[in-house]
Amino acid sequence: MKNKLHLHSMLVHVPCATVPLAAVAKIIEMNSRNLMWEMMLLFLLWISFLSIIPSVITGVIERGHKHATWFPSFKKKMGMSLFLLASLGFTIFDVSNPMIETISIIIIQPFLVIYTMILGITSTQGRVCGRLSYRKDIENTAEFDILVPTMEKIKDTGKQIL
Asked: How far apart are CA 135 and CA 92, in angstroms?
């Protein structure tokens, strides 16, 4: 069987890095008033905004292939991702209130990224001790072994590596 590229897993790392870097750039820009940091901030915000769009789309597509239903944590991740996208969009396109922009860049956007990362790690990709068993969903969904639905889907017995 041909190995499939997991685009979502690769794409989500971009905003996870650029959003906190944008917060750092904003703090430095506020203290230095240097045009270079303002340009770096705008660059990081645009990269974050543009990378979240394919991250959300590939997340929906890949989640649909793995699970028939969306667990509550998936829905929370989707909501947080869309809220982050909206927050970045307002920050980039509406600069009418510098205080709201500053709070959004330094506090709200990094919080959304960190919370979404925690949801992703602990509930949807929470591999425990090298096993491919998913932990219980935050909303108390039953535990399951990902090997079982994967083997059924691809009609392969699979190998368990411990």
From this structure: 37
SS3 133: strand
**Residues β-bridged to residue 126:** none
Structural domain contains residue 138: no
pLDDT digits (tens, 9 = 90+) for 48-96: 999 999 999 988 887 766 655 666 777 888 899 999 999 999 999 887 8
Segment 128-152, tens digit of pLDDT:
444 444 444 455 455 556 556 666 6
Structural domain harbouring 92: 12-125
- The label of the residue with tokens 């919080």 reads 111
Domain total of the chain: 1
- Note whether residue 1 is domain-resident: no
In a 10 Å sphere around its CB, with 0-12 CB exposed, 13-18 middle and 19+ buried, how is residue 156 labelled?
Answer: exposed
Residues paired with residue 127 on neighbouring β-strands, in sequence order: 134
Question: What angle, 0 to 180 degrees and rounded to 10, lies between the N-to-C axes of helices 72-93 and 35-66?
Answer: 150
Q: In terms of Cα–Cα distance, which of 115, 116, 95 is closest to 105?
A: 95
CA–CA separation, 74 vs 95, rounded Å?
32
Residue 95 lies in a domain: yes
Distance CA 94, CA 70 (A): 33
